[in-house]
Amino acid sequence: MSTSSRPGLWALITAAVFALCGAILTVGGAWAASLGGPLYYLLLGIALLATAFLAWRRNPAALWLFAAVVFATVVWELSVVGLDLWALVPRSDIVIILGIWLLIPFVSRQIGGTRASVLPLAGSVGLAVLVLAAGLFTDPHDISGNLPTELTNAAPVDADNVPDSEWHAYGRTQAGDRWSPLKQINSSNVQNLKVAWHIHTKDLMGPNDPGEATNEVTPIEFDNTLYLCSLHQKLWAVDAATGHVKWTFDPHLQINPGFQHLTCRGVSFHQTPADATDSDGNPAPTDCAKRIVLPVNDGRLVEVDAETGQKCSGFGNDGELDLRLPNQPYTTPGMYEPTSPPVITDKLIIANSAITDNGSIKQASGATQAFDVYTGKRVWVFDASNPDPNQMPDPDHPVFHPNSPNSWIVSSYDKNLNLVYIPMGVGTPDQWGGYRTKESERFAPGIVALNAETGKLAWYYQTVHHDLWDMDAPSQPSLVDITSKDGTIVPSIYVPTKTGDIFVLDRRTGKEVVPAPETPVPGGAAPGDHTSPTQPMSQLSLRPKAPLSDSDIWGGTIFDQMFCSIYFHSLRYEGPFTPPSLQGSLIFPGDLGMFEWGGLAVDPQRQVAFANPISLPFVSRLVPRGPGNPLWPEPNAKGSGGETGLQPNYGIPYAVDLHPFMDPVLLPLGIKMPCRTPPWGYVAGIDLRTNKVVWQHRNGTLRDSMHGSSLPIPLPPIKIGVPSLGGPLSTAGNVGFLTGTMDYYIRAYDLTTGKTLWQDRLPAGAQATPMTYAVNGKQFVVTYAGGHNSFPTVMGDDLIAYSLADQK
After folding, report:
1. Which DSSP helix (H) or strand (E) runs through 618?
2. Residue 2: per-residue pLDDT
3. Is 322 helix (H, G, I), strand (E, B) or coil?
4. The pLDDT of residue 8
5. Which residues pair with 355 in a beta bridge?
6. Count of H helices and E strands in the chain?
7. What is the pTM of this model?
8. Which residues are designated catalytic?
9. Which are the contacts of 163, defined by CB distance < 8 A and separation ≥ 6?
10. Which residues, given as ranges, of the chain have pLDDT below 50?
11. How far apart, in whole angstroms, are the C-alpha atoms of residue 702 and residue 721?
12. What's the per-residue H, E or C state across 62-130?
């Protein structure tokens, strides 16, 4: 029954709220529908406006109409996303809240409602709540299973002969497995871990530091001493049992805000063998019997005596090499930045470096160089853009090729095969390749296997053709001997990539062990460029099987989701390998990649792997250069101080605007919430004998996701699955460890099932890979919680060691 009497206060408030929500949804819904998005937002907006009118008229039909709206919403959301809680929430949150509001007695009475007229609405709202509750007990993104527990290879080969209790390289060994045979800490007692010691390096960001200041270090350990580099590449020697600082060495890094990176992922270790000689056959020096090789972001390598902390004066120029001089074509500090520890052989240091992305075509070369570990003499080079990549500099060829593809992460080394495996990235600029030469693209991105003594090419494997997406091979490859079904051993290399594919090759030959068939991909590059018609796609992959669709679009509320839908449909997107465009393209997997520099943790005994893939789309928009554009004419090329935002690309027709696919409503408030339905980060277990993903679980909470926003509201620690930046650790105790999530925790997992067994709160972000060792029979797990300014997490300076509470 309707009434024409004047509406009461609550009816007016109800009409106003419904009208406001309806207006936003009607206008936004019409916009979304015009771009090819769902009609739901428009229809809901119209229904809310109608409900507002009826409420203002005190017509109880408002209750009946909104009951139908709630029921239709339930039908729609179930048809689109099923029982996925996090996908359901923004599709029904406002609808449920408004429905509950209408059910409040003093509200419904003012509208003219009766007990009979509110029953349909109560039933619809109850149904919507039950659907959400059902979503609590289902997770369509979860894969449950058990990794095999038998020791397929109880005594895996370790050519480096690293003692079980020590950790000699970035990945413990130069095979890059990030696995320890220690098992004092195991899946039965890991919940008893407590802080054993905790120190502060006091090496924090300064006013002259770039925006991409990151702490990504994994310490090494031998002789009961930890060695690590802090933010400004200060080298620390720390007593591994007590945390007492033995000595520090400061290389006096020369830095400015234009550097693209401020990063040190670790240091390398060399011990002089008995009767050793240098690369010229001369007896090795007797000083610096154990030496630490420190990469410095201003382009230097420094050698330091592990015992004293003094420079090894016989190396290079008083213990230092400037890798920019005299053969780099451009020597501006920051263009050429060693950020990762080099490979070390008995006689050589094999060094790579990060090169500024998307700055200019006038960039330093990414040439790999090998130096005598004792003297610093250059022994060989591999300059990927040179027709003869091993050509040494001479008077007719004094400098390396500009913009030659580089490798910025750690390489792996097989001492028995004498091969070094280098994960290559594409030469800059990344998103437009119209000026690239055949030579500049033949090895990048992918894996290059070189003879460690000569630098001669053994084989190469390209993981992306004509890369326009910055799909570098970003991780240290893992070398593992796999037992095949017939009992034969296949020396394999596992290559995680940003695309989510893990390429599995015979590391002797580069031939595929797991098929990676060439697959058609979208075409239509920007003017002046081209695309490859196909790309290799490994059958071992953590990339989502289906392209993104409206069912994958997310937001904190239905309004955010609607604007994310508008954003999604305004971009070019045709699935993986959609080319960058002037319109703006959605790139998924995104520039950050599904795998980043953390790589895999591989148990060579059980032949299983532990991984932490990321699942964030990016947006790539080419910006034409021309008069009136702030990037025209070309100024002196300078660093951008980061890898997101507008990147200048001096020397080509386009700048590029790069950023994650984030909620455009919340972003002005500094709240960075992806427009893609969570989870955005997982942990996963892989059986390397079958090359199958056996389990996969969302990982991490929203607790610390408001860091850096203008609304620092604490969020509940609800497991949603957040990105992680840093690598996993696994041990023979059936335990995996990870610290890299956007929430500030170290976590331990059952490797067999992926179940979280233990966690501890950290004082800052820990975007680093943890490691483990033992001193006097006591096992420790160590992580550096230093934060990551571009992830972003709170910065810190905390080196923290854990051990079992009942171990003396």
Report:
1. strand 618-624
2. 45
3. strand
4. 85
5. 336
6. 8, 40
7. 0.95
8. 470
9. none
10. 1-4, 633, 637
11. 8
12. HHHHHHHHHHHHHHHHHHHHCCCHHHHHHHHHHHHHHHHHHHCHHHHHHHCCCHHHHHHHHHHHHHHHH
